[in-house]
Amino acid sequence: MSSLVYVLNGPNLNMIGTREPEIYGYTTLKDVENECKALGAELGLAVDFRQSNHEGLLVDWVQEARTKAAGIIFNPAAYTHYSIAIMDALKSCSCPILEVHISNVHQREEFRHLSYVSKVATGVMAGFGTHGYSLAMRHMAFLLKDKK
Ligand code: CA2
Question: Mapping DSSP to helix (H, G, I), strand (E, B) and coil, where does residue 48 land?
Fold first, then answer.
């Protein structure tokens, strides 16, 4: 049986591939979803892929993942840098949490250097473009391989 992985995406990520391609590239979030699902099928991971512009809904999904998911891959977008609510919700999850950022946040504005999510994440990817999601999927499969 496949392990279920929640791939969660925060505000404005529905815009990638259409605006600011010099930072986020030309791949759309729908393309990322398709790639995660195709890779998941190869790796034995079922993928529940979601995006929201609303902090509370992301908190609800993390709470849901706590009982339903074997792992969480999360790009919390701008909430990364200031959402204590999301950090608190993630803290109560015992499954692996992989934080993904498309851009290298450490090369960007100072306010993007702080991540509340990194304080509770198992691992962090930044600056690999949308390929970072595939890298996170592969690492999640590695982390979950003995747990099926
Ligand atoms: O690099 C990342 O993946 C980010 O999480 C993306 C967030 C940003 O706030 C984080 O600091 C780093 C932004 C999401 C996408 O925002 C867009 C806004 C306009 C057009 C296209 C994308």
Answer: strand
What the block records as the tokens of 139 is: 């690492």
**Which pLDDT tens digit goes with each residue over 7-16?**
999 999 999 9
In this structure, are residues 141 and 45 in contact, taking their beta carbons and an 8 Å threshold?
yes
pTM (2 d.p.):
0.97
Are the CB atoms for 68 and 93 separated by under 8 Å? no
As a whole number of angstroms, the distance between CA 98 and CA 107 comes to: 20
Mutational test site, ligand 1, from 7, 8, 9, 13, max ligand atoms within 8 Å of CB: 13
Question: Residue 43: which of 125, 138, 143 has the closest Cα?
Answer: 138
CB crowding 82-102: b at 16 or more within 10 Å, else e: ebeebbebbeebebbbbbbbb
Measure 64 CA to ligand 1 centroid, in angstroms: 24
